[in-house]
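Hi,

I'm pasting everything inline rather than attaching a file, because the server keeps stripping attachments. The sequence lines come first, and each chain or strand is labelled.
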Amino acid sequence: MRYHKISDETIRRLPVYLRDLLTLSEQGRSSISSNDLASLLGVNPWQIRKDFSYFGDFGTRGVGYDVENLIRQIKKILRLSGVNKVALVGVGNLGMAVMAYPGFKRYGFEIVAAFDSAAGKVGKQIGDVRIEDVVALNTLQRRNIHVAAIAVPRDAAQETADALVDAGIKGILNFSPCYITVPKKVKVITIDIAMDLARLPYYLPGN
Amino acid sequence: MRYHKISDETIRRLPVYLRDLLTLSEQGRSSISSNDLASLLGVNPWQIRKDFSYFGDFGTRGVGYDVENLIRQIKKILRLSGVNKVALVGVGNLGMAVMAYPGFKRYGFEIVAAFDSAAGKVGKQIGDVRIEDVVALNTLQRRNIHVAAIAVPRDAAQETADALVDAGIKGILNFSPCYITVPKKVKVITIDIAMDLARLPYYLPGN
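And the predicted assembly:
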Protein backbone atom coordinates (compact mmCIF):
# COMPACT_ATOMS: atom_id res chain seq x y z
CA MET A 1 0.00 0.00 0.00
CA ARG A 2 1.16 3.51 -0.84
CA TYR A 3 0.35 6.47 1.45
CA HIS A 4 -0.27 9.06 -1.22
CA LYS A 5 -1.03 12.03 1.01
CA ILE A 6 2.28 12.12 2.89
CA SER A 7 4.20 15.29 2.02
CA ASP A 8 7.76 15.22 0.71
CA GLU A 9 8.80 17.18 3.80
CA THR A 10 7.46 14.44 6.08
CA ILE A 11 9.09 11.75 3.94
CA ARG A 12 12.31 13.70 4.33
CA ARG A 13 12.01 13.61 8.14
CA LEU A 14 10.93 9.97 8.53
CA PRO A 15 14.43 8.53 7.97
CA VAL A 16 15.71 10.90 10.66
CA TYR A 17 13.05 9.67 13.08
CA LEU A 18 13.85 6.12 12.06
CA ARG A 19 17.56 6.48 12.68
CA ASP A 20 16.99 7.86 16.17
CA LEU A 21 14.35 5.26 16.98
CA LEU A 22 16.75 2.50 15.87
CA THR A 23 19.36 3.95 18.22
CA LEU A 24 16.82 3.99 21.07
CA SER A 25 15.89 0.40 20.30
CA GLU A 26 19.56 -0.64 20.35
CA GLN A 27 19.78 1.03 23.77
CA GLY A 28 16.86 -1.08 24.99
CA ARG A 29 14.24 1.71 25.20
CA SER A 30 10.73 0.43 24.52
CA SER A 31 8.71 3.67 24.61
CA ILE A 32 9.23 7.41 24.32
CA SER A 33 7.01 10.49 24.69
CA SER A 34 6.64 12.88 21.77
CA ASN A 35 8.33 15.56 23.90
CA ASP A 36 11.35 13.37 24.58
CA LEU A 37 11.49 12.27 20.96
CA ALA A 38 11.28 15.91 19.86
CA SER A 39 14.08 16.93 22.17
CA LEU A 40 16.23 14.02 20.95
CA LEU A 41 15.59 14.99 17.34
CA GLY A 42 15.85 18.73 17.86
CA VAL A 43 12.43 19.45 16.32
CA ASN A 44 9.13 20.71 17.73
CA PRO A 45 6.78 18.16 19.37
CA TRP A 46 3.91 19.44 17.19
CA GLN A 47 6.00 18.66 14.11
CA ILE A 48 6.41 15.06 15.20
CA ARG A 49 2.72 14.70 16.04
CA LYS A 50 1.81 16.22 12.68
CA ASP A 51 4.18 13.92 10.78
CA PHE A 52 2.90 10.84 12.61
CA SER A 53 -0.72 11.91 12.04
CA TYR A 54 -0.21 11.22 8.34
CA PHE A 55 -0.12 7.52 8.99
CA GLY A 56 -2.12 7.15 12.20
CA ASP A 57 -1.47 8.07 15.80
CA PHE A 58 0.59 5.40 17.55
CA GLY A 59 0.98 7.23 20.84
CA THR A 60 -0.78 6.29 24.08
CA ARG A 61 -1.55 9.13 26.49
CA GLY A 62 0.85 9.11 29.41
CA VAL A 63 2.91 6.27 27.97
CA GLY A 64 4.12 7.71 24.71
CA TYR A 65 5.06 5.96 21.53
CA ASP A 66 6.00 2.31 21.33
CA VAL A 67 9.50 2.40 19.80
CA GLU A 68 9.33 -0.94 17.96
CA ASN A 69 5.90 -0.20 16.56
CA LEU A 70 7.03 3.19 15.27
CA ILE A 71 10.10 1.61 13.66
CA ARG A 72 7.89 -0.98 11.97
CA GLN A 73 5.41 1.63 10.71
CA ILE A 74 8.06 3.99 9.39
CA LYS A 75 9.91 1.15 7.66
CA LYS A 76 6.64 0.06 6.11
CA ILE A 77 5.85 3.54 4.83
CA LEU A 78 9.36 4.03 3.50
CA ARG A 79 9.22 0.47 2.10
CA LEU A 80 12.48 -0.39 3.78
CA SER A 81 11.49 -3.86 4.90
CA GLY A 82 13.18 -5.79 2.11
CA VAL A 83 16.67 -5.56 0.68
CA ASN A 84 17.30 -2.97 -2.03
CA LYS A 85 20.03 -3.81 -4.49
CA VAL A 86 22.11 -0.81 -5.48
CA ALA A 87 24.53 -0.28 -8.38
CA LEU A 88 27.34 2.20 -7.80
CA VAL A 89 28.77 4.16 -10.72
CA GLY A 90 32.17 5.77 -10.13
CA VAL A 91 34.66 4.07 -7.84
CA GLY A 92 36.95 6.98 -6.91
CA ASN A 93 37.37 8.23 -3.32
CA LEU A 94 33.72 9.15 -3.02
CA GLY A 95 32.55 5.85 -4.51
CA MET A 96 34.89 3.88 -2.25
CA ALA A 97 33.51 5.77 0.74
CA VAL A 98 29.95 5.00 -0.36
CA MET A 99 30.84 1.30 -0.66
CA ALA A 100 32.60 1.23 2.70
CA TYR A 101 29.86 3.14 4.50
CA PRO A 102 28.42 0.95 7.26
CA GLY A 103 25.16 2.91 7.43
CA PHE A 104 23.64 1.48 4.27
CA LYS A 105 22.98 -2.00 5.63
CA ARG A 106 20.98 -0.50 8.47
CA TYR A 107 18.36 0.64 5.98
CA GLY A 108 18.34 -2.55 3.93
CA PHE A 109 20.56 -1.35 1.08
CA GLU A 110 23.22 -3.50 -0.47
CA ILE A 111 25.66 -2.40 -3.13
CA VAL A 112 25.75 -5.43 -5.41
CA ALA A 113 27.45 -3.92 -8.47
CA ALA A 114 30.05 -1.23 -9.17
CA PHE A 115 31.02 0.43 -12.43
CA ASP A 116 33.87 2.66 -13.56
CA SER A 117 35.14 3.95 -16.90
CA ALA A 118 38.85 3.73 -15.98
CA ALA A 119 40.46 0.66 -17.51
CA GLY A 120 42.83 0.48 -14.51
CA LYS A 121 39.90 -0.02 -12.14
CA VAL A 122 37.75 -2.44 -14.15
CA GLY A 123 38.16 -6.00 -12.90
CA LYS A 124 39.34 -5.02 -9.41
CA GLN A 125 37.59 -6.66 -6.50
CA ILE A 126 36.14 -4.55 -3.64
CA GLY A 127 34.80 -6.89 -0.99
CA ASP A 128 32.23 -9.08 -2.77
CA VAL A 129 31.91 -6.74 -5.76
CA ARG A 130 34.01 -6.79 -8.93
CA ILE A 131 34.27 -3.44 -10.70
CA GLU A 132 32.70 -3.58 -14.17
CA ASP A 133 33.12 -1.36 -17.22
CA VAL A 134 30.38 1.28 -17.55
CA VAL A 135 29.49 -0.20 -20.95
CA ALA A 136 27.89 -3.03 -18.96
CA LEU A 137 25.33 -0.67 -17.35
CA ASN A 138 22.77 -1.99 -19.83
CA THR A 139 22.74 -5.29 -17.93
CA LEU A 140 21.15 -3.73 -14.81
CA GLN A 141 17.52 -4.29 -15.76
CA ARG A 142 18.18 -7.96 -16.52
CA ARG A 143 19.91 -8.25 -13.12
CA ASN A 144 16.87 -6.76 -11.40
CA ILE A 145 18.75 -3.70 -10.06
CA HIS A 146 16.53 -0.61 -9.94
CA VAL A 147 18.52 1.77 -7.74
CA ALA A 148 21.88 3.39 -8.56
CA ALA A 149 24.30 5.70 -6.78
CA ILE A 150 26.25 8.18 -8.92
CA ALA A 151 29.70 9.10 -7.61
CA VAL A 152 31.41 10.20 -10.83
CA PRO A 153 33.11 13.57 -11.44
CA ARG A 154 30.74 16.50 -12.03
CA ASP A 155 31.38 16.56 -15.78
CA ALA A 156 30.33 12.95 -16.21
CA ALA A 157 27.24 13.03 -13.97
CA GLN A 158 24.60 13.83 -16.60
CA GLU A 159 25.77 11.27 -19.14
CA THR A 160 25.92 8.69 -16.35
CA ALA A 161 22.35 9.54 -15.37
CA ASP A 162 21.25 9.23 -19.01
CA ALA A 163 22.87 5.81 -19.24
CA LEU A 164 21.19 4.70 -15.99
CA VAL A 165 17.78 5.84 -17.22
CA ASP A 166 18.37 3.90 -20.45
CA ALA A 167 19.30 0.91 -18.30
CA GLY A 168 15.89 1.02 -16.61
CA ILE A 169 16.98 2.48 -13.26
CA LYS A 170 14.02 3.89 -11.28
CA GLY A 171 15.83 5.69 -8.47
CA ILE A 172 19.14 7.57 -8.39
CA LEU A 173 21.15 8.73 -5.42
CA ASN A 174 23.36 11.48 -6.78
CA PHE A 175 26.56 12.14 -4.83
CA SER A 176 28.13 14.23 -7.60
CA PRO A 177 27.96 17.92 -6.68
CA CYS A 178 25.69 19.02 -9.53
CA TYR A 179 22.14 18.73 -10.78
CA ILE A 180 21.11 15.99 -13.13
CA THR A 181 18.03 15.97 -15.32
CA VAL A 182 16.00 12.80 -15.70
CA PRO A 183 12.49 11.87 -16.89
CA LYS A 184 9.75 12.40 -14.28
CA LYS A 185 9.28 8.67 -13.68
CA VAL A 186 12.79 8.48 -12.22
CA LYS A 187 13.33 9.75 -8.66
CA VAL A 188 16.62 11.51 -7.94
CA ILE A 189 17.92 12.31 -4.46
CA THR A 190 20.97 14.56 -4.51
CA ILE A 191 23.33 14.37 -1.54
CA ASP A 192 25.46 17.45 -1.07
CA ILE A 193 27.57 16.89 1.99
CA ALA A 194 28.96 20.43 1.78
CA MET A 195 25.45 21.77 2.19
CA ASP A 196 25.22 20.36 5.68
CA LEU A 197 28.58 21.82 6.56
CA ALA A 198 27.17 25.19 5.45
CA ARG A 199 24.83 25.23 8.46
CA LEU A 200 27.69 25.05 10.92
CA PRO A 201 29.07 28.62 10.97
CA TYR A 202 25.64 29.97 11.97
CA TYR A 203 25.95 28.13 15.25
CA LEU A 204 29.56 29.01 15.99
CA PRO A 205 30.18 31.60 18.69
CA GLY A 206 31.09 35.01 17.24
CA ASN A 207 33.71 34.47 14.59
CA MET B 1 24.91 40.35 13.74
CA ARG B 2 23.07 37.17 14.76
CA TYR B 3 19.44 36.52 13.77
CA HIS B 4 18.28 34.77 16.92
CA LYS B 5 14.73 34.07 15.94
CA ILE B 6 15.44 31.92 12.88
CA SER B 7 14.30 28.33 13.49
CA ASP B 8 16.63 25.37 13.09
CA GLU B 9 14.31 24.08 10.37
CA THR B 10 14.78 27.28 8.36
CA ILE B 11 18.54 27.20 8.93
CA ARG B 12 18.42 23.65 7.61
CA ARG B 13 16.73 24.81 4.40
CA LEU B 14 18.81 27.93 3.74
CA PRO B 15 21.83 26.01 2.41
CA VAL B 16 19.49 24.21 -0.01
CA TYR B 17 18.11 27.53 -1.24
CA LEU B 18 21.65 28.86 -1.46
CA ARG B 19 22.89 25.95 -3.53
CA ASP B 20 20.07 26.34 -6.03
CA LEU B 21 20.43 30.12 -6.16
CA LEU B 22 24.17 29.72 -6.83
CA THR B 23 23.31 27.37 -9.70
CA LEU B 24 20.82 29.92 -11.09
CA SER B 25 23.45 32.64 -10.79
CA GLU B 26 25.99 30.48 -12.65
CA GLN B 27 23.36 30.07 -15.38
CA GLY B 28 23.02 33.85 -15.66
CA ARG B 29 19.55 34.20 -14.08
CA SER B 30 19.13 37.51 -12.23
CA SER B 31 15.65 37.10 -10.73
CA ILE B 32 13.15 34.40 -9.88
CA SER B 33 9.57 34.30 -8.58
CA SER B 34 8.83 32.47 -5.34
CA ASN B 35 6.66 30.04 -7.35
CA ASP B 36 9.51 29.22 -9.76
CA LEU B 37 11.96 28.96 -6.89
CA ALA B 38 9.54 26.66 -5.04
CA SER B 39 9.14 24.43 -8.06
CA LEU B 40 12.93 24.30 -8.56
CA LEU B 41 13.42 23.39 -4.91
CA GLY B 42 10.48 21.03 -4.68
CA VAL B 43 8.95 22.83 -1.68
CA ASN B 44 5.78 24.87 -1.20
CA PRO B 45 5.89 28.58 -2.18
CA TRP B 46 4.48 29.49 1.26
CA GLN B 47 7.40 27.67 2.87
CA ILE B 48 9.88 29.81 0.97
CA ARG B 49 8.00 33.03 1.77
CA LYS B 50 7.85 32.00 5.43
CA ASP B 51 11.56 31.18 5.56
CA PHE B 52 12.51 34.44 3.86
CA SER B 53 10.19 36.40 6.16
CA TYR B 54 12.56 35.58 9.03
CA PHE B 55 15.14 37.93 7.62
CA GLY B 56 13.11 40.40 5.59
CA ASP B 57 11.18 40.14 2.38
CA PHE B 58 13.46 40.60 -0.62
CA GLY B 59 10.84 39.96 -3.29
CA THR B 60 9.30 42.62 -5.53
CA ARG B 61 5.74 42.02 -6.67
CA GLY B 62 5.61 40.86 -10.31
CA VAL B 63 9.41 40.71 -10.57
CA GLY B 64 10.31 38.19 -7.90
CA TYR B 65 13.47 37.80 -5.93
CA ASP B 66 16.81 39.25 -6.97
CA VAL B 67 19.07 36.21 -7.15
CA GLU B 68 22.33 37.94 -6.20
CA ASN B 69 20.72 39.79 -3.30
CA LEU B 70 19.23 36.57 -1.94
CA ILE B 71 22.61 34.83 -2.20
CA ARG B 72 24.24 37.71 -0.33
CA GLN B 73 21.62 37.72 2.43
CA ILE B 74 21.63 33.96 2.93
CA LYS B 75 25.44 33.87 3.02
CA LYS B 76 25.36 36.68 5.57
CA ILE B 77 22.86 34.85 7.78
CA LEU B 78 24.76 31.57 7.53
CA ARG B 79 28.01 33.53 8.05
CA LEU B 80 29.52 31.97 4.97
CA SER B 81 31.21 35.09 3.64
CA GLY B 82 34.68 34.33 4.95
CA VAL B 83 36.81 31.22 4.74
CA ASN B 84 36.31 28.56 7.42
CA LYS B 85 39.31 26.45 8.20
CA VAL B 86 38.45 22.80 8.82
CA ALA B 87 40.47 20.01 10.42
CA LEU B 88 39.69 16.50 9.24
CA VAL B 89 40.14 13.55 11.61
CA GLY B 90 40.29 10.13 9.97
CA VAL B 91 41.80 9.78 6.52
CA GLY B 92 40.29 6.48 5.36
CA ASN B 93 37.99 6.18 2.32
CA LEU B 94 35.40 8.48 3.84
CA GLY B 95 37.99 11.04 4.92
CA MET B 96 39.65 10.97 1.49
CA ALA B 97 36.26 11.54 -0.11
CA VAL B 98 35.60 14.47 2.21
CA MET B 99 38.99 15.97 1.29
CA ALA B 100 38.45 15.43 -2.43
CA TYR B 101 34.89 16.74 -2.39
CA PRO B 102 34.68 19.79 -4.65
CA GLY B 103 31.53 21.10 -2.96
CA PHE B 104 33.26 22.44 0.15
CA LYS B 105 35.02 25.35 -1.54
CA ARG B 106 31.71 26.61 -2.83
CA TYR B 107 30.63 27.36 0.74
CA GLY B 108 33.93 28.83 1.84
CA PHE B 109 35.30 25.79 3.63
CA GLU B 110 38.90 24.73 3.36
CA ILE B 111 40.40 21.60 4.87
CA VAL B 112 43.72 22.87 6.18
CA ALA B 113 44.70 19.98 8.44
CA ALA B 114 44.19 16.21 8.51
CA PHE B 115 44.80 13.72 11.32
CA ASP B 116 44.95 9.95 11.56
CA SER B 117 46.01 7.45 14.19
CA ALA B 118 47.56 4.95 11.76
CA ALA B 119 51.34 5.23 11.72
CA GLY B 120 51.35 4.24 8.04
CA LYS B 121 49.30 7.31 7.12
CA VAL B 122 50.95 9.96 9.27
CA GLY B 123 53.34 12.08 7.22
CA LYS B 124 51.66 11.36 3.90
CA GLN B 125 50.84 14.35 1.74
CA ILE B 126 47.29 14.81 0.34
CA GLY B 127 47.30 17.85 -1.92
CA ASP B 128 48.48 20.74 0.27
CA VAL B 129 47.83 18.90 3.52
CA ARG B 130 50.24 16.61 5.35
CA ILE B 131 48.56 13.99 7.55
CA GLU B 132 49.41 14.50 11.24
CA ASP B 133 49.21 12.15 14.20
CA VAL B 134 46.03 12.53 16.26
CA VAL B 135 48.18 13.35 19.29
CA ALA B 136 48.71 16.75 17.63
CA LEU B 137 44.99 17.63 17.84
CA ASN B 138 45.83 19.83 20.83
CA THR B 139 47.52 22.29 18.45
CA LEU B 140 44.23 23.24 16.75
CA GLN B 141 43.30 26.13 19.03
CA ARG B 142 46.74 27.71 18.62
CA ARG B 143 46.35 27.32 14.85
CA ASN B 144 42.99 29.09 14.98
CA ILE B 145 41.01 26.10 13.65
CA HIS B 146 37.52 25.95 15.19
CA VAL B 147 35.72 23.47 12.93
CA ALA B 148 36.46 19.77 12.53
CA ALA B 149 35.11 16.92 10.43
CA ILE B 150 35.08 13.44 12.00
CA ALA B 151 35.47 10.54 9.55
CA VAL B 152 36.85 7.85 11.87
CA PRO B 153 35.35 4.36 12.41
CA ARG B 154 32.22 4.25 14.57
CA ASP B 155 34.07 2.89 17.60
CA ALA B 156 36.52 5.79 17.66
CA ALA B 157 34.01 8.60 17.06
CA GLN B 158 33.25 9.52 20.68
CA GLU B 159 36.87 9.62 21.82
CA THR B 160 37.71 11.71 18.75
CA ALA B 161 34.90 14.13 19.63
CA ASP B 162 36.18 14.35 23.22
CA ALA B 163 39.68 15.14 21.97
CA LEU B 164 38.31 17.80 19.62
CA VAL B 165 36.31 19.43 22.42
CA ASP B 166 39.46 19.46 24.57
CA ALA B 167 41.28 21.04 21.62
CA GLY B 168 38.82 23.95 21.65
CA ILE B 169 36.80 22.97 18.56
CA LYS B 170 33.45 24.81 18.40
CA GLY B 171 31.73 22.97 15.57
CA ILE B 172 31.88 19.34 14.47
CA LEU B 173 30.69 17.78 11.27
CA ASN B 174 30.24 14.10 12.12
CA PHE B 175 30.44 11.71 9.16
CA SER B 176 30.78 8.63 11.36
CA PRO B 177 27.48 6.73 11.45
CA CYS B 178 26.79 7.14 15.16
CA TYR B 179 25.83 9.70 17.74
CA ILE B 180 28.44 11.65 19.62
CA THR B 181 27.89 13.51 22.87
CA VAL B 182 29.50 16.91 23.37
CA PRO B 183 29.01 19.88 25.72
CA LYS B 184 26.17 22.22 24.74
CA LYS B 185 28.54 24.98 23.61
CA VAL B 186 29.76 22.75 20.76
CA LYS B 187 27.51 22.37 17.71
CA VAL B 188 27.46 18.96 16.02
CA ILE B 189 25.99 18.27 12.60
CA THR B 190 25.75 14.56 11.83
CA ILE B 191 25.76 13.55 8.19
CA ASP B 192 24.23 10.18 7.54
CA ILE B 193 24.34 9.59 3.81
CA ALA B 194 22.41 6.32 4.17
CA MET B 195 19.50 8.28 5.63
CA ASP B 196 18.95 10.08 2.36
CA LEU B 197 19.07 6.81 0.48
CA ALA B 198 16.31 5.60 2.82
CA ARG B 199 13.85 8.02 1.21
CA LEU B 200 14.30 6.48 -2.22
CA PRO B 201 12.21 3.28 -2.04
CA TYR B 202 9.12 5.29 -1.13
CA TYR B 203 9.26 6.89 -4.55
CA LEU B 204 9.99 3.76 -6.55
CA PRO B 205 7.14 2.30 -8.60
CA GLY B 206 5.62 -0.80 -6.96
CA ASN B 207 8.46 -3.05 -5.95
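The first helix of chain A runs from residue 8 to 26.

If the labels don't parse on your end, tell me and I'll reformat.
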